[in-house]
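Researcher: For the record, we're logging two predictions in this thread. I'll number them. Prediction 1 follows.
Model: Prediction 1, sequence and structure:
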Amino acid sequence: PGRTLRLLQLKLKSRLGECWRVRGSRKGPGVVPLVVVLVTLLFLTTSFLWRVSDVDPGYCKGTASRDEVAKERYTIVVNTFKRPERLVKSVKHYSRCKAVDSIRISWSEGGEPPRHLAELTTLPVIFDMHANNSINNRFRPLEGLRTEGVFNVDDDILVECSSLYFGFQTWRTARDTLVGYNPRIHSKNSGECKYGYKQWWHVWWGGTYSMVLTKAAFCHHKYFQKYTEELPRDVWMHVHRNKNCEDIAMQFMISNLTGLPPIWVQGSYSDSGVMDFKGGISTGANHYDKRSECVTKFVDMFGGMPLVETSIVATPMSRWTPMKTPPAIWEWIHKI
């Protein structure tokens, strides 16, 4: 089909040249411009179809390594605490998403967990039991894990499946950093050694960020062990006592180890926790003051500020159009 369209394209090119030669003659002053427009449209249409149809997807076979990459999967790690209805929704939702290997649930409530949730999906649903209640438990190393990639998520966050898979693809290109959907930025108070934790609006206004929140973020499982065994003890205890800032601590640790910024992925998700005024951490009193205190204390505990500011945004091609990049239009026409 590609050759046929190519021949048709050449004929249309020839016809287009004839139309331009006729343009200077006295024949049909109103007809010639219309013919030129119609032929041009036909020419562009067939060129596009030729480009699309001339590719034989079976011509080049993938290598074994590429096939292995295509088969790579990731693990969902859900952090939950006494919100059974949200946990049910979370398991149902993520069990439908592409490339999920299993669902692990960080269980710190004590008692017998709702193991019947395994009946909601064909994927393995595993409860990781913790004797002590600590917000740090969400980053304890997981036994028997079959993937390197881990998607950390709170039980009140539901990331749309296509956005989640795009996030996974993005993480595979940057496996040593945090890749997530909620960017935040830190700031330094002028004239004093205090830092501020700034919410989304500051990211939008300033165009940079230095953290992504682990309430919805991919990371390598190796950081679970590093967080549990190598994180400064003062940081671990501050998080444990205040039941807050474990995500900031994880970002501090990874940036301190790698010197890399996180990557913000633009995606679609719902967050039912924003309306939780009955004990939700992020909706509690003085939440941002407490987070700012964490940043200030962590800088001292780490011996410096490791966070790296960036303006990189990962956006799927489905949101891209040539009109957003005018040179792309000329390039396409030029290559016809």
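Researcher: Logged. Prediction 2.
Model: Prediction 2, sequence and structure:
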Amino acid sequence: MDKVDVLMLGTGEYTTGYVGGKASDSDKGAGVVALTMFDLRRRNKVNRVGMCGVNGKKFPGIRQHMQRCIGDVYGGMDLTCETFPGDDQVDPKAYVDASSKFKAGDVAVIFTPDDTHFDIAMECINKGMHVMVTKPIVQKLEDHQKVAKAAAEKGVLVGVEVHKRLDPFYADARDRVRGGLGNFQYMYAYMSQPKHQLETFKAWAGKSSDISYYLNSHHIDWSEWTLAGVARPIRVTATGSTGVAKSKGMETEDSITLTVQWQNMNDKTLGCAVYTSSWAAPKSDVHSQQRFFYMGTQGEINVDQAHRGCTVSTDQGGFASVNPLFMKYTPTNGMFSGQGSYGVRSFENFIDACREVNSGSKKPSDFDDGSLATVHTTQQGTAILEAGRMSLDADGQPMDIEYDGEGHIPTGIKPHKFA
């Protein structure tokens, strides 16, 4: 199959690991997207690589950072990368020019602030590009429906980057649920990041998105993927905690909890899921606490993603519980050897799928079977997240998710009316 050209949109922590003029102090100091694309080029799956941001004045520092964290660490890495806008330019619409330099069948990978996803994705889709967008793909169900319609009309593959689907613990839990735990009863999920991450996200935290869109999206996606055809979300009630972010001058919640009522499709019985996310946690042995408890009518599962039984302690970094299943940055014999990590596989699987579509051996719709998180199979997640924001803005009023009859694709959201 032919190689694909890739345009990365966004230059921040997840793409490059470069934040505030230096390497991020999270677990992604070398970035994920750019490192993966350079490695895929080394392995003859990707050809041309481009990167687009808003502030071109950052690119000299980004190039130095990537050379130091990738080129000087791993052998055989070609870091050649076209950048948009120019190094002396600041242009919020640079994605329009950047995408025009790529052709139909090329791949766009979008890791930008949540409120920009829709416009950038639509620009790339309309140019015939396949598109992968970080979660949440968009913030409103109405926009999700428009993106899905455009993707179908253009015949391109559009997916959401939700790498927890490739975490072997989460994937196994999904299969166990679907393989014999009966109807859905109850789920509690928690995901957090330390409060210094508020500085990383200060450009958009509370202005264009919130911690629920950023972190609750992971476990909500796991639920939608796991319960596809089994249950559907019908009501969302949200509550928040405040104080830490506001003390830093950010008008946003520290923690957000979404209580979601799910309806089992076979007998209309009800289940309840509680999703909590926070970016006000203390610094600890892990960058991100991630865990959930799931109970069905015939069994239960506990998953602690943060602690994999591996700890490391160094004079420089102190004590840490590490997770090389996500990203393995430590080289083997001078080469990048993280290809089996689910942070890498998430992108490689999408690139492979795009190459198959381009070759004619597969259609975009072939990936709506749960093998990828496509735009057509993730609308429940968008509905839950939007309903949660609507509930918060309405002082906790429950929001109902609407469907056509017994369908599983949401059609709308409206405030719940009490009898």
